[in-house]
């Protein structure tokens, strides 16, 4: 049974939430802004604000939100707009994008938007970048045209963006500054699931977020390459790693498994309602219950973990030890907004 997971580490952990280096884990929220139970976009966005506020009150370090296009079940196509609103409704929690899909956009526009946020909310803004299309083929073409061509230009865009954020960018040998220039610089991250994204993060001196919830890989190869090839930048002198996990936490194992199945059933119904099927990559796999948790006798990587606070904590701890990090982003969809909040609350209570 999964419940035995907790027995494995009881002696070494006690009541501590410390990792193998004696440092406490930093927990963050990655919110895809789902429209649960056919909620309206307005309701989903109100719940995003509530989640950020509660996460701040419970002691979560950061709130990040994603970018998706023409996906009926999600309500966030513009992270910078949502973060601007949430910043006004919170006080201290770090705010970030998970992620801005840079192939679609001008580096100058991205730098200006996030420097504006960093000027509005000093010391709180984190710019996470991705290279996925973020939507179906027609939405992708409507957004920016030939996506494959844009992806091939990503290294040049990353170079321009880092130059803009370090105030050393020129166009035709004329300096161009991304304004406003905040007193406290924002931090820069690359999100991904493979070695290519890790190498980009290393080359340009960014932090790296491994998206475990979107990958069947354990992330060790990507993170190792990132650390081996890391080049210090003006914003980051040493490599910094986060891992993004999908988790559903409940008071009992059975409830967590049942809620996870409910989420998958809702997603399946949503896919069937729309002729253009899109995969949101929320990390929950289809109905086989063995896919929802880790057995005591194996260390198999899962896209989604469901269980009690102790069971989910053990999985987080394993992931942190495997990738040598104490920084975690949690994706929790929830069959409804109340149980989504309860999952985040229960887990943070266990780790406090």
Automatic annotation (TrEMBL):
Gene Ontology molecular-function annotations: oxidoreductase activity, acting on paired donors, with incorporation or reduction of molecular oxygen
Pfam families documented for this protein: Bac_luciferase
Luciferase-like domain segment(s): 37-318
Highest taxon listed in the record's lineage: Bacteria
Protein name: Luciferase family oxidoreductase, group 1
PANTHER family for this protein: LUCIFERASE-LIKE MONOOXYGENASE, N-ACETYL-S-ALKYLCYSTEINE MONOOXYGENASE
Gene Ontology CC: cytosol
Protein family (similarity comment): To bacterial alkanal monooxygenase alpha and beta chains.
UniProt cross-references to InterPro entries, sorted A to Z: Bact_Lucif_Oxidored (IPR050766), CmoO-like (IPR019949), Luciferase-like_dom (IPR011251), Luciferase-like_sf (IPR036661)
Organism of provenance: Paenibacillus polysaccharolyticus
